[in-house]
Amino acid sequence: MASVEAARGAAAAEEKSARAGQRRAAVDERAVDQAVAYVLMAAALAVTYLVH
User: Fold this and answer.
1) In terms of pLDDT, which residue wins out, 27 or 24?
2) What integer pLDDT is reported at residue 46 of this predicted model?
3) Which of 3, 11, 37, 40 has the least C-beta neighbours within 10 A?
4) What confidence tens digit (pLDDT) does each residue in 1-25 have?
């Protein structure tokens, strides 16, 4: 009985790992980098405007 539960647990862990890998691959890292750059540029522009 314990081996059946262990097998189910292992299968569930593998499935969860596979789904996590699929979700991770769906993120476009270039788009995230570009969004961060735009936010930083906007912050720099706002600080420059306020200080000037």
Assistant:
1) 27
2) 97
3) 3
4) 556 566 666 666 677 666 665 666 6
Place of tokens 């906007």: 42
What is the C-alpha separation between 44 and 51, in angstroms, rounded?
Answer: 10
Of how many residues is the chain composed? 52
- Cα 51 to Cα 34, 41, 43: the distances in Å are 26, 15, 12
> Residue 9 is which amino acid?
G
Q: Is the model's pTM score more than 0.70?
A: no
* Angle value at C-alpha 23, between 15 and 30, nearest 5 degrees: 150
Distance of alpha carbon 10 from alpha carbon 16, whole angstroms: 10
Q: How many helices (H) and strands (E) does the chain have?
A: 2, 0
